[in-house]
Fold this sequence. Notes:
Layout: E1 5-9, E2 12-16, H1 24-48, E3 55-56, E4 59-60, E5 63-64, E6 68-69, H2 71-80, E7 84-86, H3 90-98, E8 105-113, E9 119-128, H4 129-133, H5 137-157, E10 185-186, E11 189-190, H6 194-202, H7 211-222, H8 227-238, E12 239-244, E13 247-253
Helix pairs in contact: 2-5, 6-8
Amino acid sequence: MNNTELVEYEDQRHIVMNPMDATPAQFRAGLDRRKENRDTLMEWIRSALLEGRDYGSIIIKGQKSKPSLLKPGAEKIAGMLGLIPKFPNLKEYEEAVLAGHVVDAIILKCELQNQSGEVIGEGVGARYVEKQDHGDLNKALKMASKSAMIDATLRCAGISEIFTQDVEDMALSDPEPTKQDEIHTSHGIELATEKQVSAVGRLLENDKVTTKEKRNIHSLIEGGLRKSKAGEILDYYYGDSKQENGVWIKVNRGVLADR
């Protein structure tokens, strides 16, 4: 039964539909138990998760962002809690593709279920197939499922106070800066734009990037990423692009395309 709690008192078992309907003693005991369990979980997270692999931050306008939970970290937390990710509406997209329908956008739901199949947490992830993944449906599905699982983990474990949702893909190109994407300098050195930093930061959660490469990338971000270096990194991993008639087209393949 959803949203219920089984409590014991006076050798009787009672179903409490709303925690606020419990007796003060039962309610207090429940709060104390949850607080102790949550403190234990937070302690484990801080000791078991590794920065640069399970979570990461990026530098935006010279400031370190709130840590972003990455897929490996979400998998660790869900596994520790004994939860299994399920995607109930994934089959709908599979059937649509098999039927020959064009899928422009994907919105996946993730359910974190316990061993009994009960839903403990839910999350949602969305992707635009063409706009964000250049028509690569397989990649769009993977990214949507990843985002949905991270969202479900954050909600289920109640850890939004220390982690944020994974940073969404941003354009890899670097057009003329706007008010929201100004050029910043440090000691005369032109720093990377927000779009560049976000795009480079995405490499930290890419399974095709090696652990050693992620460490190097993280060090560069931590030290204040230069605009020229950010461009080199993006071109190396994602390939070079140019704009034609308002559309960005790949000119050279990046190393990730061949891994």
